[in-house]
Design a protein that fits this description.
Elements lengths: L1 H17 L15 E7 L17 H9 L1 E3 L2 E2 L4 H10 L28 H7 L4 E7 L18 E5 L10 E2 L2 E2 L2 E2 L2 E2 L6 H15 L6 E6 L11 H6 L8 E2 L12 E2 L3 H5 L6 H25 L6 E7 L23 H4 L3 E4 L8 E3 L3 E2 L3 H9 L35 E4 L2 E3 L3 E4 L2 E4 L15 H17 L22
Parallel strand pairs: 1-10, 1-13, 2-15, 3-16, 4-5, 4-10
Antiparallel strand pairs: 2-14, 5-8, 6-7, 8-9, 11-12, 13-14, 17-18, 18-19, 19-20
Length: 480
């Protein structure tokens, strides 16, 4: 009886955390900063130099080490769900988008009832709000278009897995400027960076702007630039990799190296091709930071860098030393490289290990620049401003408070404990999820399972049985 009472008390405490009870933050007293969010696609924990990767990422490394590293930052295990949560501050399950991604033949998209970062910042006086890169939140109807979701400018592609050179996916050209099809030529990583730089250079210095840059690298298709392949050790004598997967220890086969084929991305191995894509991404991120510097905007620009999910191992990524990969709720699938800089307000060279997530970004920005009285309780996330090392004493850091973070229908995480696929892990002593404690700690396991069931019942909205959620073999992107 006493055990059951203790279990109930623990469960009630967890429910209070689920319901978002947390301390409020004082707002930033000063000029509203420019806000830049840089989201990369499928970059693993072990794919950045500051986490021990052999891939050269000097720009990302310097940004993280001279800024604030967010070393306990969680996302969803796939592209679309993370984008939903990042832009809405709410779990993707509330919009029936917790699982999978929006593929070319799907007719649904992020509910038009959802209020996005772009909408909130528009109300806060941000006149220029650009979405540049990968959208992935609906393409079958113009109502899902970024220009109808609070953004004032769009350049990039609607779906995922677009060809880096031809910009084609599923037989159609998926490259656009606002509502019109764009026939710009070039490697997508460079095109996205060039457009972001152009946006910054044309921004009015006295007006704050919002720039959301969503690179499609280093997501498949594995296509790198020949110069980057050379810098990552490409050998013509070795030839082009032709499978099976060397990461799994199989015998690698190689085709004769062809300069034309190499120009379209193939390297000696998947890891090498992937590394070359990351190198291009790193340099492109550097171009964006340099543009801010040259335009005199770097000091009062908040820049958040993050990956949308863990790396996909069979495509050359690394999440080492974490367990798991993209699509899984183990750490390697949902814990990602993330860092933030805001020179005017944040200290440099700091590391924050408090539990943070994609759902926290919007409420943090609302807390920073939103209108007084804006209700933060409408979000599943919470402001992380008080957990950042502000220079001003008005923004003193606070101790991490208890919270439960829902990772998906099969898992959740707290500051210490992780429940994934009915396995219980103590991340404080077992960060690599090797020891399942579910049998040895049944009370805690059952309590967390109760909380997970609460999430399942109250967060996940089943897909409607109507045409808006069905796939179709006939589809056409707006602008074509």
């Amino acid at each position: 009886m006493m055990a059951r009472k203790k279990k109930t008390q623990i469960f009630v405490l967890l429910l209070l955390v689920v319901c978002g009870i947390s301390a409020a933050t004082t707002g930033y007293e000063g000029n509203k900063p420019n806000i830049v969010i840089v989201l990369v696609d499928d970059m693993g924990w072990g794919d950045v130099g500051y986490h021990g990767s052999k891939i050269a990422t000097p720009v990302i490394d310097e940004f993280a080490t001279e800024g604030v590293m967010l070393e306990n930052f969680y996302v969803s295990p796939a592209c679309t769900p993370t984008r939903v949560s990042l832009l809405t501050g709410r779990y993707a399950g509330r919009y029936s988008l917790q699982r999978g991604v929006i593929t070319p033949n799907r007719r649904d998209g992020l509910s038009t009832d959802a209020k996005l970062i772009s909408d909130v910042l528009k109300e806060a006086g941000y006149e220029d709000r650009a979405c540049i890169g990968k959208w992935h939140l609906g393409h079958s109807d113009v109502k899902y278009h970024p220009l109808n979701r609070g953004f004032s400018y769009f350049y990039g592609h609607y779906g995922g897995m677009v060809d880096f050179y031809t910009h084609i996916r599923a037989g159609q050209l998926d490259w656009h400027r606002n509502f019109e099809t764009s026939y710009d030529q070039g490697y997508t990583t460079h095109l996205i960076a060039t457009e972001a730089v152009r946006f910054i250079e044309n921004a009015e210095a006295e007006k704050p702007f919002f720039l959301y840059v969503a690179f499609n690298a280093p997501h498949v298709p594995l296509q790198a630039e020949s110069a980057e392949l050379d810098q990552n050790g490409f050998l013509m004598s070795k030839g082009l990799y032709s499978g099976p997967d060397p990461i799994k220890g199989d015998q690698a086969n190689y085709l004769p190296a062809d300069r034309k084929l190499r120009h379209f991305g193939q390297g000696n191995s998947r890891r090498q091709t992937y590394a070359a894509m990351v190198s291009s991404l790193d340099k492109s991120f550097g171009r964006i930071l340099m543009a801010l510097e040259e335009c005199g905007m770097r000091e009062n620009t908040l820049v958040l860098f993050m990956s949308d999910n863990g790396g996909h191992l069979e495509n050359g990524a690394s999440n080492s030393p974490l367990r798991g990969e993209k699509g899984k709720l183990y750490e390697g699938g949902v814990k990602v490289p993330a860092a933030i800089q805001w020179p005017a307000a944040l200290k440099s060279g700091e590391i924050v290990r408090d539990l943070m997530a994609h759902i926290d970004v919007l409420p943090s920005l609302v807390d920073l620049v939103g209108e007084p009285g804006h209700d933060l309780q409408q979000y599943d996330g919470r402001s992380f401003l008080t957990h950042l090392p502000f220079k001003s004493p008005l923004h003193a850091q606070t101790e991490a408070s208890s919270r439960l973070l829902y990772l998906g229908t099969d898992g959740l995480v707290t500051e210490r404990w992780k429940l994934a696929y009915d396995e219980l892990f103590d991340l404080s002593t077992d960060p690599y999820e090797k020891i399942d404690l579910s049998a040895s700690m049944p009370l805690l396991y059952e309590s967390l399972l109760d909380s997970l069931n609460f999430f399942r019942e109250n967060i996940n909205v089943p897909k409607k049985a109507d045409k808006s959620y069905q796939v179709t073999s006939e589809w056409k992107m707006p602008g074509q």
